[in-house]
C-alpha cells in the first residue's frame, strides 16, 4: 500500500450559508463539521497524514475549538488561499509523494468504505473521483430563457474525496488558475489525464446552505 495523505480544504468563507461563523466550524449534532470530516479519514486509516487548510483569520479559533472539544487527532495546518484551487495548492506544498486525497472540509459524512474505494482505485488509476446519479431531470440553458432537456443517464454528480498520485496532482496544479476549475479532477484533466469514476454516496453531502445543516443532523441520527 502506498503512502497515503489527505488535504482537507477548509479555507472558505461559507458565503452561501449566510452565517458569521464559516460553516466548517458550525456544529452538527453537537460537533463542528470539520472535526467530523477529520474523524472520517482517521477512522479509515489512523496513520494517514492529515493536512488541514484553514483561513489565517480562523487558525487561533480552530486551536481553541480543538482544546474545548478535547479533539486530539494529529494534523498539520496549511494556509487558506483566495479560492479552493489556491487552498489545495498550498496544502500540496506540504505533501511528499504517495497517494493524496483532496477532501472538502464541509463533506463530513464520507463513509470509511467510500474513502477506501477511492484510495484503492487510485493504486491503479492516476485520478479517481466519487460520483452519484442525478435523481432529478436536467435541463441545459441554451439562449436566455430557452432550454433543452439533457439525457440524465449521461450525467454524474461529482463529490470528494478526489484521489491522485501526488506527482501528477502537483504537476497539474502548476498551471494558471481558471474559473472552470471547480474541483481537482478538472485541473488534472486539463493536463490530458483521464479521470476514473467510482461510486459515491447520497449521504456524502456538501454542507452549503442552512438546509444542509438540518439534513446533516438527520444523517448523524441515521434517519
Ligand atoms: N478559498 C477557499 C474556498 C473554499 N475552500 C474550501 O473548499 C470546500 C468547498 O467549497 P465551498 O462549499 O464553496 O465553500 P465556501 O467557499 O466556504 O462557500 P461559499 O462558496 O458559499 O462561500 C470547502 O470546504 C471550503 O472551505 C477553501 O479551502 N478555500
Ligand atoms: C469539489 C466539489 O465539492 C465537487 O462537487 C465542488 O466542485 C465544490 O464546489 P464549490 O462551488 O466550491 O462549493
From TrEMBL:
Residues under site feature: Positions MEP for the nucleophilic attack: 152, 206
Enzyme class: transferase
SUPFAM superfamilies the record matches: Nucleotide-diphospho-sugar transferases (SSF53448)
Name used for this protein in its record: 2-C-methyl-D-erythritol 4-phosphate cytidylyltransferase
Protein keywords: Isoprene biosynthesis, Nucleotidyltransferase, Transferase
A Gene Ontology BP annotation from the UniProt entry: isopentenyl diphosphate biosynthetic process, methylerythritol 4-phosphate pathway
Pathway: Isoprenoid biosynthesis; isopentenyl diphosphate biosynthesis via DXP pathway; isopentenyl diphosphate from 1-deoxy-D-xylulose 5-phosphate: step 2/6
Enzyme Commission no: 2.7.7.60
Gene Ontology MF term list: 2-C-methyl-D-erythritol 4-phosphate cytidylyltransferase activity
Free-text function comment from the UniProt entry: Catalyzes the formation of 4-diphosphocytidyl-2-C-methyl-D-erythritol from CTP and 2-C-methyl-D-erythritol 4-phosphate (MEP).
Amino acid at each position: 500500500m502506498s503512502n497515503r495523505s489527505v488535504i482537507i480544504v477548509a479555507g472558505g468563507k461559507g458565503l452561501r450559508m449566510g452565517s458569521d461563523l464559516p460553516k466548517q466550524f458550525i456544529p452538527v449534532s453537537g460537533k463542528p463539521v470539520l472535526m467530523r470530516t477529520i474523524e472520517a479519514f482517521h477512522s479509515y486509516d489512523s496513520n494517514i497524514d492529515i493536512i488541514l487548510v484553514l483561513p489565517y483569520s480562523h487558525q487561533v479559533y480552530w486551536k481553541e475549538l480543538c482544546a474545548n472539544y478535547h479533539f486530539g487527532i494529529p494534523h498539520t495546518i496549511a494556509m487558506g488561499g483566495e479560492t479552493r484551487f489556491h487552498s489545495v495548492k498550498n496544502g500540496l506544498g506540504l505533501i511528499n509523494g504517495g497517494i493524496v486525497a483532496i477532501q472538502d472540509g464541509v463533506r463530513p459524512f464520507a463513509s470509511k468504505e467510500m474513502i477506501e474505494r477511492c484510495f484503492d482505485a487510485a493504486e491503479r488509476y492516476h485520478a479517481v473521483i466519487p460520483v452519484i446519479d442525478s435523481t432529478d431531470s436536467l435541463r441545459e440553458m441554451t439562449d436566455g430563457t430557452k432550454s433543452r432537456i439533457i439525457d440524465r443517464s449521461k450525467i454524474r454528480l461529482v463529490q470528494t474525496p478526489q484521489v491522485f498520485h501526488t506527482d501528477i496532482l502537483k504537476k497539474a496544479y502548476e498551471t494558471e488558475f481558471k474559473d472552470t476549475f471547480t474541483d481537482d479532477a478538472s485541473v488534472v484533466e486539463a493536463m490530458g489525464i483521464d479521470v476514473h469514476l467510482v461510486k459515491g454516496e447520497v449521504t456524502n453531502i456538501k454542507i452549503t446552505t442552512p438546509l444542509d445543516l438540518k439534513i446533516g443532523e438527520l444523517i448523524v441520527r441515521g434517519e
